[in-house]
Amino acid sequence: MSDTSDYFSALQRLISNRPVRVSTGSKINKDTVALEAGRKRGSIKKSRPGFTNLIIEINKASAPSTKPKNDLSNRLKKIREDKNKYRERYHQSLNREIMLLNRLSELEKELNKLSNVIPFKE
Question: Among candidates 90, 70, 67, which has minimal Cα distance to 78?
């Protein structure tokens, strides 16, 4: 059946989470594939001979997978590492600023010790 090419391209858009006609993040099932293909809900049926391969692919795509959990845990791990890296950089910058303030204070004291410098008055 030549009409299944629309359904297969709709399925690929749903798998890549870039649908055109349905909302992103929709569950992948026969109805959402049909709607994404621009057809009516319920147009994909087991009783129709041309849809057996499509139904098999839809079932594969809709099967729960463990990849998103691993992907989310990897993302969370990376975010935590970034947080720790930026916290360390923040503390380093605070230490630098404190060191520079101390040095500035020392230099101002030395400058005040030199009595031949006339302070600026408005």
Answer: 70
pLDDT for 114: 79
Q: Give the count of beta carbons closer than 10 Å to the beta carbon of residue 6.
A: 15
- Who contacts 33 (Cβ-Cβ below 8 Å, separation ≥6)? 7, 10, 11, 14, 44, 54, 58
> What are the E-state strand segments in 1-122?
none
**What's the pTM value of the predicted model, to 2 decimals?**
0.52
Domains of the chain by residue range: 4-62, 66-115
> pLDDT digit string (tens) for 21-49?
998 888 999 999 999 999 999 999 988 88
